[in-house]
Design goal:
The complex is a heterodimer of chains A (about 425) and B (about 120). With about 425 residues, chain A is an alpha/beta fold. Helices cover about 40% and strands about 15% of the residues of chain A. Chain A has 14 helices and 19 strands. In chain A, helix 3 (about 70-85) crosses helix 10 (about 290-305), helix 4 packs parallel to helix 5 and helix 11 (about 305-325) runs parallel beside helix 14. Classes of the chains: A alpha/beta (about 425), B alpha+beta (about 120). The structure holds pyridoxal-5'-phosphate (PLP).
């Protein structure tokens, strides 16, 4: 039981499951068990409704019209920015830029800001556990500027190998671009300590929050992150809306990424000047309905409380680690301690390829992911071409893990020689 | 689509692959991968009189890709090159006796892709 926003005691499990219509779906006659929220989350009816309502009642382009509807759109869009500001503890709503997703945010940073500050011979520090989206934009800018890329490695249990930091200090890296939570290992990285470390060396930290912001309290001021990026679709919101947070002083100095409508203050036939923050980075008609729906997703998460979300997933991870290790031949990657691990468990099974695992689990209505999860270099280091990955969110419960374990046992038997 | 793909003969070919191993006297060999899955397959072909006289393969990957490589290796022995050129996806589904959905069809078709590429190389050897 859990007190809702009105202070009533409610059965939170029933309430949550009621809000996700897709979870009522049957796959081949079996209850849908969705364990792939790391790829994308499901959406509650509140978020779906706001999209429908907005298009059917208030729809009109933002910022441009001076009639009632346009005012409503603009207000709702900007209110959502305010919600996001509060959600991640930013100081100023001008620090919140809407993009399409985490990938676009990272490209924007690397392209606009990276190309301004990176010089020949500079050092950029990444980690081997990055998603391709936090690798390739930096590698491109490094190639263009003839800068160097270095990677912090991992220990046997899938944590960052912080013993390497002393060596990297000597290089005085200009940028540390790092994921907050690994989308494969589940590892929660010590961002606050790393921010202090890189700042003391005169560098900046770019945090990929795609797997942290949806799942735990994140405060950019507490972390002292220079940039933080995340995607709306992984946190109960719709696809096509993402966020870039940057410190005001940095964003203010940055050149725009895309140019065109909306992001200018004045254009003549000869020259132009940029609009102020945040609109300088929001060229063209934005996905304002997506932004509004993301605001609703944040309301939903806030009603639960991000502490509740974090603790709920942590409990599930502890339960899952316990159960899954009973499956013969299973190997789990990443820390086995639930304290520094998000709700993500990647695993392999002896003699069974992850694709076969995923196909057979699907037969039981269980959705997991198999492959390299956009982290091929990490899989090279783990020494496997692919892993199977189960991940949890607010609508998962212990019974989902029981179903997963039972199915994996069945698969093990099928393949046992 | 699930357990019905993992028929007894498919699992049998996966566990006991036929013609598994390199051929030292191969006329051609070819390797290819399914990048998203990490499946990797190499076919070795020995050609005599415009026919495949010997086949070998090595690889690693999922049940469907490896069983398909094994089953196909049995079928192509003594086949003429012209016949190989005519093989299509439908042929693979028929000899395997399964028809996976879109997500898994590339697994079973890797064998055909590697075989065709190997045969293409013959023009050049
Ligand atoms: C750690 C991490 N970074 C970045 C991304 C990219 O997110 P998107 O595809 O929404 O841009 C993902 C999504 O899989 C992720 O897990």
């Amino acid at each position: 039981m859990y007190p809702d926003v009105w202070g009533r005691e409610i059965d939170i499990k029933k309430e949550i499951l009621k809000d996700f219509p897709i979870l009522g779906r049957k796959i081949g006659g079996k209850r849908l068990i969705y364990l792939d929220s790391t790829a994308t989350s499901q959406k509650p009816i509140q978020v779906l409704d706001v999209i429908y309502e907005f298009y059917s009642r208030s729809n009109s382009n933002v910022h441009r019209g001076i009639y009632k509807l346009s005012e409503e759109s603009t207000e709702a869009y900007e209110k959502s920015r305010e919600k996001i500001k509060k959600f991640i503890g930013a100081r100023d709503k001008r620090e919140i830029i809407f993009t399409r997703n985490a990938t676009e945010s990272l490209n924007l940073i690397a392209y606009s800001w990276g190309s301004q500050i990176i010089r020949k011979g500079d050092n950029i520090l990444l980690t081997v556990m990055e998603h391709h989206s936090n690798l390739l934009p930096w590698r491109r800018i490094a190639r263009e500027k003839k800068a160097n890329i270095h990677y912090i490695g991992i220990t046997k249990d899938g944590r960052l190998d912080l013993s390497e930091l002393d060596n990297y200090s000597k290089l005085e890296p200009k940028i540390l671009a790092i994921t907050h939570v690994s989308n494969v290992l589940g590892t929660i990285n010590p961002i606050k300590d790393l921010a202090k470390w890189i700042h003391d060396l005169g560098g900046f930290i770019v945090v990929d929050g795609a797997q942290s912001v949806p799942h735990m309290p994140v405060d950019v001021n507490d972390l002292d992150a220079d940039f933080l990026v995340f995607s709306g679709h992984k946190m109960l919101g719709p696809t096509g809306i993402g966020v870039l947070y940057g410190k005001f002083e940095i964003l203010d100095e940055m050149e725009p990424f895309l140019v065109g409508g909306e992001m200018i203050s004045r254009v003549t036939l000869k020259d132009e000047s940029w609009n102020e923050l945040p609109w300088k980075f929001e060229a063209g008609t934005p996905n304002y309905v997506g932004a509004i729906a993301l605001g609703m997703a944040i309301d939903y998460l806030n009603a639960l409380g991000m502490d509740w979300v974090y603790n709920h997933e942590r409990r599930l991870v502890r339960y899952a680690l316990d159960k899954l290790l009973d499956v013969p031949g299973i190997k789990i990657y990443g820390p086995l301690d639930d304290r520094d691990r998000g709700g993500i468990i990647s695993f392999t099974m002896d003699n069974v390829h992850p694709h076969d695992i995923a196909t057979l689990l699907d037969e039981d209505g269980i959705c997991i992911r198999s492959g390299h999860h956009c982290a091929q270099p990490l899989h090279d280091i783990l020494g496997v071409p692919a892993t199977a990955r189960a991940s949890f969110y607010i609508y998962n419960w212990e019974e989902d893990i029981d179903a997963l374990t039972a199915s994996l046992m069945k698969i093990h038997k099928l393949f046992a020689i | 689509m699930g357990y019905e793909l993992y028929l007894e003969h498919i699992l049998d070919h996966y566990r006991n692959p036929r013609n598994y191993g390199k051929l030292d006297d191969a006329t051609v060999k070819h390797t290819d991968t399914n990048i998203p899955c990490g499946d990797e397959l190499t076919y070795y072909l020995k050609i005599e009189d415009n026919k495949i006289s010997k086949v070998g393969f090595i690889g690693q990957g999922c049940v469907l890709s490896m069983a398909s490589a094994s089953i196909l290796s049995e079928k192509i022995k003594n086949m003429e090159i012209d016949e190989i050129n005519k093989l299509d996806e439908e042929y693979i589904y028929n000899i395997l006796g399964i028809r996976p959905g879109p997500a898994r069809s590339k697994c079973v078709l890797l064998s055909l892709k590697v075989l065709k590429k190997a045969v293409e190389k013959l023009d050049r050897v």
